[in-house]
Amino acid sequence: MVTDATSDDLGADAHDNLWWYSDGTVWDLGPAEFDADGDGRADSLTSEIEGFSAILTDADGDGRVDRMSVLRSDGRVAAWQLEDSGGEWNPTALGRVE
């Protein structure tokens, strides 16, 4: 979910929003919806990637999405983590929900 809405439209401070960097563009994804790791801080949101459900997470608290989990309609699950050096997504888990 990429939005053209400003943070004023969303009722939140843009600094609290999650963002994604791709191909020279920064995408404002809006505010985090839930706490995926149980630390008391909302750090994740749900979205759709290529027609599949996804959870996008800012694990280190800087606002940039650095973990991604995708659930495909056939039950396959894949997860990736962004390298600390800032460029490449590396697979961390592959599996299937039965």
Q: How do the strands and helices of this protein lay out in sequence?
A:
Elements: H1 7-10, E1 17-22, E2 25-31, E3 44-49, E4 52-57, E5 67-71, E6 76-82, E7 89-96
Antiparallel strand pairs: 1-2, 3-4, 4-5, 5-6, 6-7
Largest sheet: 5 strands, antiparallel
Number of strands: 7
Terminal Cα span: 27 Å
The number of helical segments is: 1
Measured by DSSP, the beta-strand proportion falls in: over 45%
On the 0 to 100 scale, the average pLDDT is 85
Q: Low-confidence spans: pLDDT under 50, at least 5 residues?
A: 1-10
Helical proportion, percent range: under 10%
Find the structural class using helix and strand composition: mainly beta
- How many domains? The number is 1
Structure report:
This is DUF6802 domain-containing protein. With 98 residues, the chain is mainly β. The chain has one domain (7-96). 4% of the residues lie in helices and 46% in strands. It is built from one helix and seven strands, in the order αβββββββ. It has one helix at 7-10, and strands at 17-22, 25-31, 44-49, 52-57, 67-71, 76-82, 89-96. It has a five-stranded antiparallel β-sheet, with no helix packed on it. The chain has a two-stranded antiparallel ribbon with strand order 1-2. Strand 3 and strand 4 (52-57) form a beta hairpin. The longest helix has 4 residues, at 7-10. The chain is globular. It starts with 6 loop residues before the first helix and ends with a strand. Mean pLDDT is 85; it is low at 1-10.
